[in-house]
Amino acid sequence: MNEIIAIICEYNPFHNGHKYQIDKIKGMYPDSTVLAIMSGNVTQRGEFALFDKYSRAKSAVICGVDCVFELPYPFSASNAEVFAKAGVYLAIQLGATHLCFGSENENINYIMSIADAIENVNKEEVPKLKKQDKSMSYPKIIEKICNNDGKIFPHMSNLILGVEYVRAIKKYGNNIIPVAIKREGSGYNDLTVGERMSASAIRKHFFDKGIIMSVPDGVNVFYKELIDNKEYIDNNEIIDFLFRSVLIMSPEQIEDCYDVPSGMGYFICDIASNSDNAKEFYEKLTTKTYTYARLRRVVLYSILGIKYIDTEPAYTTLLSSNIKGREHLKVLKKQSDFPILTKLADYKRMNEKVINQFEASSKADKLFMSFLRSDAKPSDFIKKMPHIL
Question: How far are the Cα atoms of 50, 215, 239, 243, 284 from residue 186, in angstroms, in the given order?
Fold first, then answer.
């Protein structure tokens, strides 16, 4: 059997830890086709990626992935539940038989037991706990309920995503087999410098020292070309832009957008008006109730006018592929009519849902392009084509 292995990822940037996962998958499933479903130019925490989505996809194919498809914005910059559900939905549409993910705990039975505990939560308990402690965030409430049920709710980011992947697979009633691979090296937010650094540490080291570390030999030269051509962005510049944009928005404008509860718009506007700079703004924003990631996402939703997110992605974009990936794509196109864009301008020929989703995503792409250090124009995003290796 030729297993089709899906990975839901960000590759911001592709590093040694990702290469370890790919090599592990190839060892477990030697004849498999590996598909990456990768965040576009905006990642899950509401941050813009260091390199553009096509370049990140190419680096993954250089290092062993067979085909990379896009998880478009705003699905790519949503909470763990929405992000995972959208990724799993695309994995199903792309013919995946297995879903592999890195996790701090590789015991899939444990991960499935956490997913079951969350599904069994009595929703009536949520408002009761919220009333008892208004500062308690929703993840904290779920943690408390799971603990009361005898389950230890994980704080580790990859494990949480793994739980959400399993929940999504169960929701869709699909036969995709979830496979957890033990995460090695630094944790998600660990800034330690070494052979196997986190993506956060790699980005920080790059902006501090001007050097990309802890990446596979196969992509070192490619990354150097991107940096020499100034095809990267500095998130600090975007953070400053977002902060200044909030200053001219009203609380009502913010609260009219997705995932913004009543009162958050006034909170955000008040903090912005009383902050000297973007750094202070985001530091003051983060509270027990509102996490840093959620606030970053909300600010971006507000600026890009994201008022709702559909249940599932209506399309995906091919970003990069090798020969094996192209063979899978040929088979897929015979078996399914799910829209896969290769030439972006073709989105206009698609149905209304695809058009609406693509145009929402394109706002983020234009903004990303405008912040590239190169002389790329915002409209250049529509000219991009998949990297075929």
Answer: 19, 13, 25, 31, 28
What is the percent of the chain where pLDDT is above 90? 66
- What is the model's pTM? 0.92
Instruction: Tell me the domains of the chain and their CATH numbers.
Output: 4-113+159-230+311-388 (3.40.50.620), 114-153 (no CATH), 235-304 (no CATH)
- Cα 129 from Cα 307, distance rounded (Å): 28
Q: Note the residue count of the chain.
A: 389
Q: Is the dihedral of CA 269, 273, 278, 280 positive or negative?
A: negative
CB 278 within 8 A of CB 243: yes
> What is the rounded average pLDDT of the residues 157-167?
86
pLDDT by residue (tens digit) across 186-196?
554 555 666 67
The torsion angle over the Cα atoms of residues 157, 159, 165 and 166, rounded to 10 degrees, is -150
Which pLDDT value is given to residue 235?
Answer: 82
Q: How far is 192 from 261, CA to CA, in rounded Å?
A: 36
- The beta-carbon contacts of 136-145 under 8 Å, at least 24 apart in sequence, are 136/288, 136/289, 137/288, 137/289, 137/290, 137/291, 139/291, 140/288, 142/118, 145/121
Which residues are CB-neighbours of 84 under 8 A, at least 6 positions away? 8, 161, 164, 165, 167, 168
Q: Which of 279, 272, 281, 284 is nearest to 246 (CA)?
A: 272
**pLDDT, tens only, 216-231:** 998 999 999 999 999 9
In this prediction, residue 295 carries a pLDDT of 85
